[in-house]
């Protein structure tokens, strides 16, 4: 099966046109496919990082001062009937933030920026998972073509051999009709496999808006190996980074809400002009809110609960992630063992059975149905191998996504 897969890809590599970075080898590797992939969700995540950067800049700003004008002692009665006793005050007031509001606000914005960066990384890893699945589907679709071509070749060879037996009256005429039906069925299967492979390559190329004029390099897919989990494997991952960033942001928000409980005074200075004698005087003012009705305790309690929820979300996800990695690892081990067993025992035995039956068929020792049954057993074993490979690599894509296997490649396209 492995030789058949490699041969299929080698023939396709010679026949398929190639362009751009593929011109040298004619093959598309998984790494190249991941580098090419793009999606609006990734750009949207990057835009949210820009928004978070702007939020950091804004959080560093101090409160704006205010400029005020007061005109009094006019338009009244008696001596204030006219404008002779008008007093005009021009004042400048500046709020002063206390309780570490500014530093707490900046820290929160920075932690929110970390969360946005983690979400951008996750967007790329989600895209990579989809591309990896599409890449495997395209590679195995090419292998399906190889199976269909071999099936058609054998059907034609059997038809020729059966024709000689019918000519010598060793088999009935209807056996020839059955053989021709199998040829037609094999031709249809080959055409369907070719169309499926074209569709799979087109779907893969759609992730970067290109054409499916390439050959998938499947050399790393033929011999699956079960992954080995260790303690370090279970402590990494983009999703963990996001939850850790959200936990840090929730903790920073507690500090922000606590700082809001500290009232901010406002100080002012001004110049007052007395119209009666054209004198001027300095005016100094100050005010501070009284936390009589609202001490922001409810907001502090809410932020504290959100911090606790973020901590529990992180702990829960770590457990769920470990369970899922263990499940995927076990499933991949089972499928890898199935592929290995098929390669080592089933395919060699089925291949020998086909050779023996065909030799006996040529001597007249077996019937056409015996040959078909033996050939079906071999074809079914090869198809089963492909199914096991497909299950293995689908799980591999999920496994790589959880581990962040391609996180360095994803980080090269992410905003720092």
Main sheet specs = 4 strands, antiparallel
What CATH architecture label of the largest domain applies? Up-down Bundle
What is the terminal-to-terminal distance?
A: 45 Å
Low-confidence stretches: 1-24
What integer is the average pLDDT?
85
Task: Classify the beta-strand content into a percent band.
Answer: 5-15%
| Tally of alpha and pi helices | 9
Q: Give me the Rg, rounded.
A: 38 Å
CATH fold assignment of the largest domain: Outer membrane efflux proteins (OEP)
Which CATH first-tier class of the largest domain would you pick?
Mainly Alpha
Largest beta sheet: strand ordering: 2-3-5-6
Q: Which superfamily, in CATH terms, is the homologous superfamily of the largest domain?
A: Outer membrane efflux proteins (OEP)
Total E-strand runs: 6
Number of domains: 2
Name the helicity range: 55-70%
Outline, from the CA principal axes?
Answer: rod-shaped
Order of helices and strands: HEHHEEHHEHEEHHH
**Quaternary status:** single chain
SSE diagram, text form:
Blueprint: H1 2-15, E1 27-28, H2 30-36, H3 40-59, E2 66-72, E3 87-95, H4 101-167, H5 173-205, E4 215-216, H6 238-260, E5 266-274, E6 279-287, H7 297-363, H8 368-403, H9 407-412
Helix pairs in contact: 1-4, 3-4, 4-5, 4-6, 4-8, 6-7, 7-8
Describe the structure.
With 416 residues, the protein is an alpha+beta fold. It has two domains: 2-62 and 97-261 and 296-412, Up-down Bundle (Outer membrane efflux proteins (OEP)), CATH 1.20.1600.10; 64-96 and 262-295, Single Sheet (N-terminal domain of TfIIb), CATH 2.20.25. It contains nine helices and six strands; from the N terminus they run αβααββααβαββααα. A four-stranded antiparallel β-sheet has the order 2-3-5-6, with no helix packed on it. The protein has a two-stranded parallel ribbon with strand order 1-4. The longest helix has 67 residues, at 101-167. The protein starts with a helix and ends with a helix. The model is unreliable at 1-24 (pLDDT under 50).
């Amino acid at each position: 099966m492995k030789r058949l897969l490699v041969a299929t890809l080698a023939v396709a590599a010679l026949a398929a046109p190639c362009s751009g970075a593929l011109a040298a080898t004619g093959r598309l590797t998984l790494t190249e496919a991941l580098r090419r992939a793009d999606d609006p969700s990734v750009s949207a995540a990057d835009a949210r990082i820009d928004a978070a950067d702007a939020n950091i800049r804004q959080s560093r700003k101090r409160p704006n001062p205010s400029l005020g004008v007061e005109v009094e002692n006019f338009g009244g009665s008696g001596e204030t009937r006219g404008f002779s006793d008008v007093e005009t005050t021009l004042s400048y007031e500046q709020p002063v933030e206390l309780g570490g509001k500014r530093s707490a606000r900046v820290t929160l914005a920075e932690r929110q920026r970390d969360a946005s960066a983690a979400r951008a990384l996750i967007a790329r890893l989600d895209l990579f998972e989809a591309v990896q699945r599409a890449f495997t589907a395209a590679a195995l679709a090419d292998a399906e073509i190889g199976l269909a071509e071999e099936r058609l070749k054998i059907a034609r060879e059997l038809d020729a051999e059966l024709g000689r037996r019918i000519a010598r009256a060793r088999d009935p005429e209807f056996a020839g009709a059955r053989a021709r039906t199998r040829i037609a069925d094999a031709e249809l299967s080959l055409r369907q496999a070719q169309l499926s492979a074209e569709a799979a390559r087109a779907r893969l190329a759609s992730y970067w808006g290109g054409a499916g004029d390439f050959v998938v390099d499947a050399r790393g897919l033929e011999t699956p190996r079960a992954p080995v989990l260790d303690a370090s494997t279970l402590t990494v991952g983009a999703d963990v980074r996001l939850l850790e960033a959200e936990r840090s942001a929730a903790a920073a928000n507690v500090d922000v809400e606590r700082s809001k409980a500290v009232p901010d005074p406002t100080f002012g200075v001004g110049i007052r002009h007395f119209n009666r004698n054209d004198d001027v005087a300095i005016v100094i003012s100050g005010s501070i809110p009284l936390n009589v009705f609202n001490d922001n305790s409810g907001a502090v309690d809410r932020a504290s609960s959100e911090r606790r929820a973020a901590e529990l979300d992180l702990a829960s996800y770590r457990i769920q992630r470990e369970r899922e990695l263990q499940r995927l690892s076990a499933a991949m081990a089972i499928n890898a063992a199935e592929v290995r067993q098929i390669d080592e025992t089933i395919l060699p035995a089925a291949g020998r059975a086909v050779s023996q039956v065909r030799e006996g068929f040529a001597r007249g020792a077996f019937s056409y149905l015996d040959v078909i049954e033996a050939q079906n057993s071999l074809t079914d074993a090869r198809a089963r191998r492909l199914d096991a490979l497909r299950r293995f690599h689908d799980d591999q894509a999920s496994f790589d996504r959880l581990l962040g296997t391609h996180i360095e490649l994803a980080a090269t396209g992410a905003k720092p």
